[in-house]
Amino acid sequence: MIVATLLHATDPLAPNDTVADALVEMAESHLSHLPVVSAGGRLDGVVAEAALRAWPDPEAPLSVLPVPAPVTIPPDTHV
């Protein structure tokens, strides 16, 4: 099996999207984690619904959240 078979296509969030924007997107897409991608197409991190719900300011941009650096692998990697 390759990684690509495990992935779901979803529109990524942007660093300037708000916590509230992210929570709405998660509810609409029925996902609990979403990627945050910079304007240049670089994966900045993955935000979790639990972290967003715990954040005190729903209007804060995602760029202020402490998101761990992502670990990435190519989609054709065998697992």
Task: Please describe the biggest sheet, giving its number of strands, its sense, and whether it closes into a barrel.
Answer: 2 strands, antiparallel
Give the ordered list of helices and strands.
Answer: HEEH
Using only C-alpha atoms, the radius of gyration works out to 13 Å
Q: How does the overall form come out from the CA principal axes?
A: globular
Strand content is 5-15%
Strand order of the largest sheet: 1-2
Can you characterise this structure?
Helices cover 22% and strands 14% of the residues. With 79 residues, it is α+β, with helices and mostly antiparallel strands. It has a two-stranded antiparallel ribbon. A hairpin with a 5-residue loop joins strand 1 (33-37) and strand 2.
List keywords for this structure.
2 strands, two-stranded antiparallel ribbon, single chain, alpha+beta
